[in-house]
Structures are given as structure tokens and as C-alpha cells.
Amino acid sequence: MSIDVLHALGSGFAVRDGATEWFTYTYLPDTPQLESPKPFLHPLRTRAGRVVSGFRPWDHVWHKGLAWSLPVVGAENFWGGPTYVHGRHYVQLPNNGAQRHTGTGDLSFDGAVARFAHDLDWIAEAGTAVFRERRALSARALADDAWALTFETALRNVTDAPIAIGSPTTKGRDNAGYGGLFWRGPRSFTDGTLVTADGTGSGAEVRGQHHEWMGFEGRHDEVDATSLVVMLDAADNPHHPPQWFARSEEFAALNPAPFFSEELEIPAGETARFRYAIAIADADRSRAASLVDDLRTLLAEAEAS
Description:
The chain has helices at 203-206, 288-304; strands at residues 4-8, 12-17, 20-26, 40-41, 66-73, 76-78, 83-85, 89-91, 98-109, 113-123, 129-143, 146-157, 163-166, 180-184, 193-196, 199-201, 213-219, 226-233, 243-244, 253-254, 256-257, 264-266, 271-281.
């Protein structure tokens, strides 16, 4: 299994498997400030070429495929759109920050694994630097019907005061603890099935539950096919196992949310680290457990190295 990397200098790169492009990672996006500019992976495709991500949907234009997005960073919003204010619901504030690629990145591939690492500055809308981030991604085939992405991030507080990362739930909105690595599915995945180690259900049934991993089984338009997205939270992540912000009603979404109902405070000068592994498969829910085993192996190997 050999993969190729195509690099669009200065904006992003794509990983492809033969004629199929698995994803494009745009690290220098052309995004309005209101949507909190941030790098994103879209489109995400299975090895059969079926798209399993949604981009800038009309209901939440700040949803960008798969992206690291934080709605509550102290008083700043690095998610996009309005901010939840306790007692006032959502209010559009002048606090939509941006994750800015610094211009330095390392891209490599050996025919089997593509790797990319880069630095980002998190800048508040007022111009203040909040975090310096080091981010690393890798992509490889798992089997004929699946490939895997790993995502690692280290956020260093570059201010002179502690920063609390939270969610709308930590600000008073019930069961809306989104924030972190967030996947938005295509419109056809609406009313799909959430998959956990304990069984299956809808978003309303599993949202807010603690799990090591969760999957989403969805069906495609135009072709009679089912795809599966599985996300695994590393055991050394803060607040592991996380609560999940998951939806199947209204739209498809998966988000291991470490700040769902409890803030994480990062002291001045300190760093918080998170690691994830994601499988994209031409499969149904019956493949979820075996894919999770593969993802655990990937994270363990990365930790050992």
C-alpha cells in the first residue's frame, strides 16, 4: 500500500492513495474572522473515495470538516460565531480568535506513512497572543477498507496568567459541552448511528457519556454504501475518558470533549497535550471494535517513540 503527498506550497497539502485523495489539510485558510480561522481537514474520504466530512454548513458555518476548535478559552472564542453567555444565551462578541500557521512546517512521507508537523500562534481578535501550539498529524493505511489519522497537539500558554479552557456547559448551558477535536459529517449522515463499546444509539442518547472511543455509522447519497468514522482518545489525555459531544439528530458530529463539564486550567508558561487517533472506513458498525484495536496500537507506538 503506497501513498503520495501533494503539497500546495503555503496553504496546505493532500494525501492520496492511488487515484483516491484521503484528505486535504488546509493550514493557511481563507476564513472570515467571524468563523475563527483555523486549520482543517476537508474533504475526508474513505479508501473507496466516499466523502465523510461536511464543510461550512449553512446551520454552523464555522464547522470545518475535522478541526481542533475551542469555544471557551478564557474570554476568547476560537470556535467561531457567537459565544454562550450565561443568562443571555448566544451573543456575538468581538472575541473570535484565529489559529495562525507561523510559516514553519515539516512534511515527510516514506510511501507508507505521511507526517506533518507545524507551529501555530493563537491570536485573540484584539491581537493578543494566547497560545503557541505545536501540532503533528500522520496518515497511513490500516487495511483494504480503512485508513488512520493521528492528531497530536501541545498548547503552551504564552500569557502571564492562567487560562481556563471550557465549553458552553461550563458556562451554564446544559449538555452542550463541545470543544476540542470536532468532526462534522456530511448532510446525508443525519440520523446515523453512534457506536460505543456499550452498544449503539442516537446522539441524544449518548451525548455527555464518558467513553474511550466512539464511532459514527452513516449512509451516503447517490450510492448504496455505509461508512464508519471512529475516534479514539489517548489514555494520557487530560480528563480521560472524555465526555462526548455527539450528534446524529439535526446533523452528524463526533467530539471527544475534554472540557465538556469541567474546565482545564493551563498555568502561565505551561503546556497541555492531547493525542487522538481516527479511523475512516468503508464499513459498518461491526468493524468498530477491530479498528479501535488498531488505533490503540498506533497511539502506543507513537508514545513509545
